[in-house]
Write a structure and sequence with these properties.
alpha/beta, eight-stranded mixed beta sheet
Length: 387
């Protein structure tokens, strides 16, 4: 029998034991964590919208034989699982903090530039843009109404000095200049050069830092160029006081969620109208100021996006306008109430009526296409113009 002093120790056996114990505990921890998340999937109700990300979340897809066979169902289900993961907002924030700790200026496809401006990182592919411009061109040729096309460059197309060097962005300025120079396109429409208008004011607060929209100030400069007889801002201010709302963190911040980002200020004019209805429901005015206490403060303009809105203004001149638009137009439309007595606002994403019939019924109306560049380069609903 060996004495205690004669017992031989295996070199490193103690360290191996500690290492094995730690590995066992970590494996057990992650197993329990994954199991807990899996259980919570079934216990917690699905969320319809993420206020933190400012978007609607994927819901459980309906099972169909077609979707199952072509793989669509599994893709939709994967998106659903990713959107409904428990404590999603917390995970997003932790990821953003970790990215900032690594001194990265990009998170979730959003790039932080100079002076705390956020930009959408994109590819220099304008195939969809060209397709949509061609459809608008065909539409302009097919109607007797006076057509105006105004394309707003996004912040990256105007505030180029604030975009981080080396990040790929669609060259909006170059693309818009090419469009203006191409006399074979949109020759049946009046094309408004908003790029030059905004670049002349690039030192002013014309784009939000944390949101993809232009500010009310930027929209007013665009209105001056679109309108043939624009009202002066001082004349508006005599009757309608300019209001402000601070602590606005917009759609870009909703994705970025990084650190050291300055919030924005929204300026608005609650211009009165005689009547306003959106998708058949009447409202007291163009603005929903209750949304200033929500995350999506920009949603106050025109009360959000609808398929069709009808505006009866206080202007008495017999003129009417049909606007095809995205959300960029929402903060500009109140200025147009000084130019027209009746305004029909159409968002092709949600519009259900026949556009050909509507235009035919309003032959005396002017027509305005007002979109931001990124929207025209992504949206696939312009086919509705020909139906």
């Amino acid at each position: 029998m060996l004495e205690k002093s004669e017992v031989k120790r295996i070199p490193g056996s103690s360290k191996n034991s500690i290492k094995n114990t730690l590995e066992y505990k970590m494996t057990l921890f992650f197993t329990l964590f994954i199991l807990g998340v899996f259980v919570l999937y079934f216990l917690m109700p699905d969320n319809e919208k993420s206020e933190w990300e400012n978007r609607y979340l994927e819901q459980a897809p309906k099972l169909s034989v077609t979707d199952l066979l072509d793989g669509t169902y599994m893709t939709k289900y994967e998106d659903y699982i990713n959107d409904q993961i428990p404590f999603r907002d917390g995970f997003i924030k932790v990821k953003a903090v970790a990215e900032a700790g690594l001194l990265k200026c990009e998170n979730n496809g959003i790039v932080k530039g100079k002076d705390s401006y956020l930009f959408t990182k994109g590819k220099d592919d304008t195939t969809v843009f060209d397709k949509n411009i061609d459809i608008i061109d065909q539409f302009a040729k097919s109607v007797d109404s006076r057509v105006t096309v105004a394309i707003a460059p996004n912040a990256s197309g105007v505030l180029e000095d604030k975009v981080p060097k080396g990040f790929m962005m669609p060259n909006q300025a170059e693309k818009l200049d090419a469009l203006y120079a191409d006399k074979t396109l949109l020759k049946d429409a009046r094309v408004v050069d908003l790029k030059s208008v905004l670049r002349a004011r690039e030192d002013e607060y014309i784009y939000y830092r944390t949101d993809h929209h232009w500010t009310t100030n930027g929209a007013y400069y665009a209105y001056q160029e679109i309108s043939e007889n624009p009202i002066d801002l001082s004349a508006i201010s005599e009757n309608v006081k300019a209001m402000e709302a601070g602590d606005f963190l917009g759609t870009l911040y909703a994705k970025y969620k990084g650190l050291f980002v300055n919030s924005d200020i929204i300026t608005y004019y609650d211009i009165p109208v005689l009547k306003y209805s959106a998708d058949g429901k009447e409202y007291a005015g163009l603005l929903d100021t209750d949304k200033l206490s929500a995350f999506d403060k920009y949603g106050m303009f025109m009360r959000g996006n609808f398929g069709r809105c009808d505006v009866k203004t206080s202007t008495k001149n017999g003129k009417s306008l049909i606007i095809f638009k995205d959300s960029y137009a929402n903060c500009l439309i109140p200025f147009l109430t000084y130019d027209y007595e009746d305004i029909i606002v159409l968002d092709l994403r949600y519009a259900k009526e026949s556009i050909k019939e509507l235009v035919s019924d309003h032959k005396d109306s002017d027509i305005l296409f007002l979109y931001n560049f990124d929207f025209l380069n992504e949206d696939n609903h312009f086919y509705k113009l020909m139906k």
